[in-house]
Amino acid sequence: MTQVTLPVPALTRQDSSASEPRSCCRLGLGQLVLSAATFSAGYACGLSSTTLNASFVPSLSTIKLPDICPPCVQQPCSPCDQVTVPCPASQTFAAPAATGNVGTSFDVRTTSATTTPGLIASSMPLAATSEAVIVKVFAGGNGRLGNNIGQLLHGLAFALRMHADLVNLVASGGQLPQIFALKNLTMSLPGAGEGPRNIPKECMQAAIGSRMKKEPNTYAGGFWTTRCDKVPAKEYHELALQYIWPLIKPEVKACLEGPDEAPGQEQQLTIHLRGNDLWNMGEFELMPKKPVNMEAGAHHWLWANPPCTMYEKIIREEGFTQVLIVTSPDRRHACVPWFENFRARTGLNVKITLQTNSLAEDFCTLARARNLVLSFSTLSNAAAIMSKRVKRVYLRQFALNSMMNCDIWPDVSMVQYSMPISEQHHEPYNNTYAGVTEWFQTYNMSLITRSPSCK
Q1: What is d(CA 210, CA 159) in angstroms, rounded to the nearest whole number?
Q2: Strands annotated E in 119-246
Q3: For the stretch 244-261, what's the b/e string if a residue is b when 16 or more beta carbons lie within 10 angstroms of its beta carbon?
Q4: How many CB atoms sit inside 10 A of residue 267's CB?
Q5: Among residues 365, 414, 361, 364, which one has the least CA distance to residue 391?
Q6: Which residues, other chains included, contact 262 with Cβ-Cβ below 8 Å and sequence gap of 6+?
Q7: Distances (CA, A) of 96 to 28, 46, 104, 106, 128
Q8: Which among 7, 92, 79 has a CA at the least distance from the CA of 49?
């Protein structure tokens, strides 16, 4: 076993003018097995044949050795051959004995290039220290309320799978303060510190992306795109009820838990129409400063949202007699005027109510809904996850990074619809706001089908 000790700057930049000498060790070009569980993002397979090159970011499936060896101080290096070798299986990773500055030293050995390729083990050992495992979740710095709730739940799901001793929830901005009384909360979870100290395979990328270099037993981040894969919606729902509900402000909780204000709630369909940022406005802009340029290129996520005629299909097939629409104050969504003429156009005896209230009031309405139609938005997706009342969920497709998925909790049914329209293929409609509006308001209901299974 050969130990290669690297200076700390090599982990952050490639600086040939640095005064501190760097080691240059000649290794074989077989498979490299790296014995370290404390890689930061980008270094899972990032060891060259001579030294760690911080400017080189490989994939997780191969190690690409550079064409030329990095410069050496003690002796010249001859050119290296450029080869591609498989990443080691994760069971060969051994935790370092010390916790110092992560990545400053590695144990390196060479094996045959014919060994099993790919990352095939189910887990990676954590650092073998007596220190507590801590997960810090910084929510609020990525998008709006739906995203912020997602950050909290993604972080909690990660902490549970890591058997973390402590979880620190930090509201770092965004819209969380409008709903939650959360600033900086540290708590323990069931099973804290118990179970095998392994990083589950589904959380590997989240662990790599959030592990602190100077505190290898601490994982900190926003947990939005870096999260555990394939966490069931029912688990997110349970986490929301157990850990997020107690953080809700009293006035918001009073709304969420209040009695039904009107009879016939079982026959009411609640629809979320995502407005503002998809309709030529800023993300946090409440009211528009200028009209929509109908000839401008449409926001690409509009093609993932349901057309207005999908709502009509649901109303007709399910027999709803009341429809409550929740949208942003700008009312720019193309289905707003479409719904205003709904009864005259369809002849259906359906009561239509349009709501554009405060964020807290609108979130409360969505979370209280018995029958909820999701938009391509994490707001309505988060409201469903947080809901204690929802019984039936309708959707076209799940929002990106959403906590909602097909693995739903008991006593809730899900109905999904599909149609041959997407961001890539939306013929005959052009990719402008005028084209999207035409599609939303006139799309043939016969082309919208109820999916036989959730996907």
Answers
A1: 12
A2: 123-125, 134-139, 166-171, 184-187, 198-200, 218-221
A3: beebbeeebbebbeeeee
A4: 16
A5: 414
A6: none
A7: 23, 18, 11, 8, 7
A8: 79
**3-class secondary structure, 325:** strand
Cα-atom radius of gyration of the chain, to the nearest Å? 26
| Cis amide leading into 428 (omega within 30) | yes
Question: Measured between alpha carbons, how far is 138 from 140 in angstroms, rounded to an integer?
Answer: 7
Q: Copy the structure tokens of residue 78.
A: 């001859």
Count of other CB atoms within 10 angstroms of residue 119: 18
Q: Give the rounded distance of the alpha carbon of 366 from its chain centre.
A: 21
23 vs 47: CA distance, rounded Å: 13
Residue 366 tokens, joined: 């969505």
Q: Is 135 helix (H, G, I), strand (E, B) or coil?
A: strand
Q: Which residues contact 98 (CB under 8 A, 6 or more apart)?
A: none
Strand-pair partners of 5: 105
Instruction: Write out pLDDT tens, residues 405-444.
Output: 999 999 999 999 999 999 999 999 999 999 999 999 999 9
Using CA atoms, how far apart are residues 74 and 21, in angstroms rounded to an integer?
8
The pLDDT tens digits for 21-76 are 333 333 333 332 222 232 233 323 333 333 333 333 333 332 233 333 333 333 44
Q: What are phi and psi of 174, to 5 degrees?
A: 70, -150
144 closest CA partner among 292, 282, 243: 282
Would you list the DSSP string of 358-422? -HHHHHHHHHH-SEEE--SSHHHHHHHHH-SS--EEEESSPPTT-S--SSPPTT-EEEEEE-S--
Residue pLDDT, tens place only, 185-233: 999 887 777 767 789 999 999 999 999 998 989 999 999 988 999 999 9
Domains defined along the chain, listed by start: 1-121 (no CATH), 134-231 (no CATH), 259-450 (3.40.50)
Cβ pair 58, 85 in contact under 8 A: no
Would you state the structure tokens that stand for residue 278, as one six-digit string? 């998809």
Edge-to-edge order in the sheet of strand 413-418: 351-355, 322-327, 268-273, 371-373, 392-395, 413-418, 449-450
Closest CA to 136 of 195, 72, 68, 210: 210
Of 54, 105, 103, the residue nearest 212 (C-alpha) = 103
